[in-house]
């Protein structure tokens, strides 16, 4: 486990470089552009979101994996917003109830062990009127979804627990959020198992 997570962290930026340059970088920028106030970047990984948070944000970047967190710390200088890095998890965010303006999940709701627990925790920390921002690969439809179901165990083994067949919008609804999908897109050919991707905003009636 330790060796595999170290290997995954060491390869992460190289493995995602093409996707970041062709699609993800500009999507991250668009998703995060309007943010201000207290923001939690959940499962911040190696810090791909950091350069895109506007200076009006106070960002807490939460990352449970020490190998990822080391890389995240090394990238704090790429941020224009003030950034604090925290050991923690989606299921136990370092914030009091109702104190956070936005909770950001990018490529994380695929990996958290329990989506319902992570979303309930996001809901706990959000202020009334606060927003959950997401950019996630999700379950496809028809034969694509069947392929994702078949590949899921192998994919999860290779990609540190990532579940390619999750219906994340349904999970958001079940957690009491109203999700507004701003964009649906693919990276590479449609058949790539980690397609499609969705980005958008979710709010609660609280
Ligand atoms: C695919 S990476 C995405 C990293 C980053 N958010 C990005 O957009 O590039 C998934 C991240 O989720 C983190 N993660 C896994 N389980 C988690 C949990 N329970 N709570 C928070 N983060 C978690 C992993 O350590 C990893 O950094």
TrEMBL record:
Q: Tell me which UniProt keywords the record has, alphabetically.
A: Methyltransferase, Transferase
GO BP annotation list: methylation
Which InterPro entries does this UniProt record tie to the protein? Methyltransf_11 (IPR013216), SAM-dependent_MTases_sf (IPR029063), Thiol_S-MT (IPR052356)
Coiled-coil spans are none
Which molecular-function annotation in GO is an example for this chain?
S-adenosylmethionine-dependent methyltransferase activity
Please state every residue range assigned to the domain named Methyltransferase type: 40-134
What name appears for this protein in its UniProt entry?
Methylase
Give the species this sequence originates from: Arthrobacter crystallopoietes BAB-32
> What is this organism's lineage?
Bacteria, Bacillati, Actinomycetota, Actinomycetes, Micrococcales
């Amino acid at each position: 486990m330790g060796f595999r997570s170290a290997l995954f962290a060491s390869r992460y930026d190289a493995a995602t470089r093409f996707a970041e340059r062709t699609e993800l970088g500009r999507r991250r920028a668009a998703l995060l552009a309007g943010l201000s106030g207290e923001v939690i970047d959940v499962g911040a990984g190696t810090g791909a979101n950091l350069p895109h948070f506007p200076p009006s944000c106070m960002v807490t970047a939460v990352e449970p994996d020490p190998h990822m967190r080391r890389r995240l710390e090394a990238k704090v200088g790429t941020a224009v917003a003030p950034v604090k890095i925290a050991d923690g998890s989606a299921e136990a965010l370092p914030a009091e109830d109702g104190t956070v303006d936005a909770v950001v999940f990018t490529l994380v709701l695929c990996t958290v062990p329990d989506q319902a627990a992570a979303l309930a925790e996001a809901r706990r920390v959000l202020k009334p009127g606060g927003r959950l921002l997401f950019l996630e690969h999700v379950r496809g439809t028809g034969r694509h979804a069947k392929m994702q179901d078949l590949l899921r165990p192998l994919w999860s083994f290779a990609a540190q627990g990532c579940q390619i067949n999750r219906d994340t919008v349904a999970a958001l609804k079940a957690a009491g959020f109203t999700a507004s999908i701003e964009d649906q897109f693919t990276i590479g050919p449609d058949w790539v198992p980690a397609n499609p991707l969705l980005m958008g905003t979710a709010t609660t009636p609280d």
